[in-house]
């Protein structure tokens, strides 16, 4: 990833020209850090002594990360309900299946709910994954009420002593208020049966600053508790992880690393930071 490699290479030369600062700034902005955070980094470096610059910027950047727990909520005495939300195309349904597989492999009894009833393909995809894992799944008719599917699943999960209920919701356009309101309805209906313990927002790392805009609106609308970031690969575009935690204060809990059912990892903030400063 080595996001700050060019910055530190320039510092080691002992003299950085105006053109070099402009090039460094452009590189960092292209990494999806955002203009404000990039300028903050550069000002921090300029004000530090050359020998202290690396430590100063490392410490400063680490302070941007969320200090909230990255662990998935678990109460062993009751059903734990996790809602997976996000816009279309972020990898939401696949992430739901990956999380189901992960929890099942750790010994939890998991129920899936295919509440993305507006896309037959989404339900079919989740059914396919459910068969492979395997886990039980609750589905509804195409274009049926998503809240009804969620309620049925919550009722079943609670009655049959499941450890986790994972609900895949329709891909919301965060700019469409009526769709966001509908998501709020799903949450209210589920809460009649069981608390909604986690609302995980899936964000595609390649969407850049638009991902942060999505996050802010979802947080305001439905109370997101954390993020699943997909496509956060080894490129310098990975600055989005820093930016999203700095802007929202919420933790990235999981990272999608590939297309396989096992390709879902904890977000290791120490390894991530180390990668930025290689």
Automatic annotation (TrEMBL):
Protein name in the entry: Signal recognition particle receptor FtsY
Q: Which GO terms describe its biological process?
A: SRP-dependent cotranslational protein targeting to membrane
What is its subcellular localisation? Cell membrane; Cytoplasm
SUPFAM superfamilies, sorted:
Domain of the SRP/SRP receptor G-proteins, P-loop containing nucleoside triphosphate hydrolases
Q: PANTHER family per the record?
A: SIGNAL RECOGNITION PARTICLE RECEPTOR SUBUNIT ALPHA
Highest rank taxon of the organism: Bacteria
Q: Which UniProt keywords apply?
A: Cell membrane, Cytoplasm, GTP-binding, Hydrolase, Membrane, Nucleotide-binding, Receptor
Identify its protein family: Belongs to the GTP-binding SRP family. FtsY subfamily.
What is the primary gene name for this protein?
ftsY
Q: Where does GTP bind?
A: 86-93, 168-172, 230-233
Q: Which Pfam families match?
A: SRP54 (PF00448), SRP54_N (PF02881)
The free-text function statement in the UniProt record for this protein reads: Involved in targeting and insertion of nascent membrane proteins into the cytoplasmic membrane. Acts as a receptor for the complex formed by the signal recognition particle (SRP) and the ribosome-nascent chain (RNC).
SRP54-type proteins GTP-binding domain location is 251-264
GO CC annotation, single: plasma membrane
Task: Please write the reaction equations for the catalytic activity of this protein.
Answer: GTP + H2O = GDP + phosphate + H(+)
Question: What species is this protein from?
Answer: Candidatus Nanopelagicus abundans
């Amino acid at each position: 990833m080595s996001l700050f490699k060019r910055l530190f290479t320039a510092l080691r030369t002992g003299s950085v020209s105006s053109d070099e600062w402009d090039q460094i700034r452009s590189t960092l902005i292209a990494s999806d850090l955002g203009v404000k955070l990039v300028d903050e980094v550069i000002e921090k470096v300029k004000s530090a002594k050359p020998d202290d610059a690396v430590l100063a910027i490392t410490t400063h950047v680490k302070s941007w990360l969320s200090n909230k727990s990255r662990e998935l909520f678990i109460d062993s005495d009751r059903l734990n309900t996790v809602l997976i939300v996000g816009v279309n195309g972020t990898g939401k349904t696949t992430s739901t299946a990956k999380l189901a597989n992960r929890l099942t492999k750790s010994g939890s009894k998991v129920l899936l709910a295919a509440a993305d009833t507006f896309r037959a393909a989404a339900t079919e995809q989740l059914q396919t994954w459910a068969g492979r894992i395997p886990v039980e799944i609750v589905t509804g008719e195409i274009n049926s009420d998503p809240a009804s599917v969620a309620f049925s699943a919550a009722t079943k999960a609670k009655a049959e002593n499941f450890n986790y209920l994972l609900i895949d919701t329709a891909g919301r356009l965060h700019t469409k208020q009526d769709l966001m309101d509908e998501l709020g309805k799903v949450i209210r209906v589920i809460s009649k049966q069981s608390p909604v313990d986690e609302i995980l927002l899936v964000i595609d790392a390649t969407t850049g600053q638009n991902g942060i805009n999505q996050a802010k609106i979802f947080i305001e609308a439905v109370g997101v508790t954390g993020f699943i970031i997909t496509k956060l690969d080894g490129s310098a575009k990975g600055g989005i992880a820093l930016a999203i935690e700095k802007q929202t204060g919420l933790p990235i809990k999981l990272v999608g690393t590939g297309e396989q059912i096992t390709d879902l990892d904890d977000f290791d903030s120490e390894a991530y930071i180390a990668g930025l400063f290689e």
